[in-house]
Specification:
heterodimer, A: globular, B: alpha/beta, about 40% helix, binds adenosine-5'-triphosphate, binds magnesium ion
């Protein structure tokens, strides 16, 4: 438990030790804020503004998709490159603890990132009377989707020493898994990350969707642990 | 205390080390000598459990590093060839993090960080970013990291490499002090360093141990006057 907390703290604080964390938050806020404003203020007969984030959630998820590989690329690649992996391996910390600690550190940052958009629902509540259910579930959905992106990124970061390669492979994987619904037929639709988000945006909680994300995250974290283990024994 | 048991490491078809065995008694300080590429780092990594051997094993304080990994690891403080530091952290935060990795509770951690800082003379720079420290001070941070959990065994891979003469002497002095209470093995290819710090040497050449004795004993056996001659005669020959 103590090593886990140490890892979470170190990796979370790491986002703010360089411009990375600030830039990510600023960028995310800027782009989504822009869309939020447009959504509320561009009134036309076809588009009447409504007090909900429904139109925004997919957009925010896509922005997260593009930001998250930058948040995850260094997680293991940098430790391997700079030699600090040897420190992590010398301590009596299991690979599962290592992966979980680093994952939770990144999740904490994701939480802060999403929290930075809290003014959107607050504004909605001031100018209108939004349904709270869909709002809360939208954020839950976004968090789960983001958590899935990070699981993929942490896996690709464990593959080698190059941060750039980690980010590129993460992009390719994420885009594939995201758009599987459009090209993969019925199975693609079931496997795709995008199709499980819909319920949340509508305020419908479906356990199957939540389990999908949990399972998704588990698989990629499991693969990461296996990758680290294989390095210990090769 | 530090036992290598028939350790062999093969990279592809090349053997980095071959059938390396030795036994370092508790309380001694031993230099692991060898030319570049001899297999010093490979040996040390296997001893510390950070690299699996192709065959053989290591025992630290009687614990097998691959069977009783946690107990064995707790005996070892390890400073790798490149100090495993995070430049964007302060010295203090870094040591606190390493203490956490070793499972030390927050309250005790403060004390232990203090102790390690004092032991390596880092008290004045505790709030500085590691990235801004000189090479010698970074090396001290690496040493402090190895000491934080109060190990019985200290394993140092070329602890003075790349330092200026003054820093070399300072680090050497620190190692000499640590050796009073711990079993120490360090690798080096600086002969004066080894003769200054220890009586016993293990010389490794092309992955094999070619000498393992006190400097005096080896001198007598080989009819050589000093460590330099011993080193040259034992590591002569073979492909370069
Ligand atoms: N990951 C690796 N893959 C292939 N060969 C390796 C690897 N690591 C080390 N070697 C080889 O194993 C041999 C021993 O290397 P090692 O690093 O243990 O030597 P060393 O004595 O520490 O040398 P140095 O004085 O340069 O630090 C070398 O010939 C090296 O090229
Ligand atoms: Mg070496």
């Amino acid at each position: 438990m103590i090593p886990l907390l140490a890892l979470i703290k170190k990796d979370f604080k790491g986002y703010f030790a360089s411009p990375l964390g600030y830039v990510a938050i600023a960028l995310f806020l800027f782009i989504t804020g822009f869309a939020f404003t447009a959504n509320l203020t561009q009134v036309s007969p076809q588009h009447l503004p409504e007090a909900s984030l429904r139109g925004m959630v997919y957009f925010m998820a896509v922005i997260l998709l593009f930001i998250s590989p930058f948040l995850t690329m260094r997680i293991f690649a940098e430790e391997k490159k700079s030699g600090t992996m040897e420190l992590l391996k010398t301590a009596p910390v299991s690979d599962a603890q290592l992966v979980l600690g680093k994952y939770l550190g990144a999740l904490l940052f994701l939480f802060v990132l999403l929290l930075s958009t809290i003014e959107f629902p607050i504004i909605l509540m001031q100018v209108g009377d939004p349904d709270l259910g869909p709002l809360v579930l939208s954020y839950l959905g976004l968090f789960l989707v983001g958590a899935s992106f990070i699981a993929v990124g942490i896996f690709t970061s464990s593959l080698g020493r190059s941060q750039m390669m980690a980010a590129i492979i993460a992009f390719i994987l994420l885009l594939t898994l995201w758009f599987l619904a459009d090209v993969g037929g019925e199975i693609g639709e079931k496997l795709s990350m995008i199709s499980h988000l819909q319920g949340y945006t509508l305020g419908v909680f479906d356990l199957a969707d939540t389990l999908y994300y949990f399972f998704f995250i588990f698989i990629f974290l499991f693969l990461t642990v296996r990758k680290l283990e294989s390095e210990r024994w090769q | 205390m530090i036992q290598a048991v028939g350790m062999t490491k093969q990279y592809g078809s090349r053997k980095a080390i071959q059938d390396v065995s030795f036994d370092i008694p508790a309380g001694s300080i031993v230099g692991l000598l060898g030319p570049n590429g001899a297999g010093k780092t490979t040996t040390i990594r296997i001893l510390t459990g950070t690299l699996p051997p192709t065959s053989g094993t290591a025992k630290i304080g009687g614990y097998d590093i691959f069977e009783e990994t946690d107990q064995a690891k707790r005996q070892i403080g390890y400073l790798p060839e490149t100090p495993p530091i995070y430049p964007e952290m302060t010295v203090e935060d870094y040591l606190d993090f390493v203490g956490g990795l070793w499972g030390i509770r927050k309250k005790e951690r403060k004390e232990k960080v203090e102790k390690a800082l004092t032991a390596v003379g880092l008290l004045e720079v505790r709030r500085r970013l590691i990235g801004n420290l000189s090479k010698g001070y970074k090396q001290r941070v690496g040493l402090a990291q190895a000491l934080i959990h109060e190990p019985k065994v200290l394993v140092l891979d070329e602890p003075t490499i790349g330092l200026d003469p003054k820093q070399i002497l300072e680090i050497r002095e620190l190692i000499r002090n640590f050796a009073k209470g711990m079993t120490v093995i360090f690798s080096s290819h600086i002969l004066q360093e080894v003769s200054a710090l220890c009586e016993r040497v293990i010389i490794i050449h092309q992955g094999k141990i070619v000498a393992n004795d006190t400097i005096a004993g080896l001198g007598r056996q080989l009819g050589k006057a000093n460590l330099e001659e011993i080193f040259l005669s034992t590591t002569a020959g073979g492909k370069e």
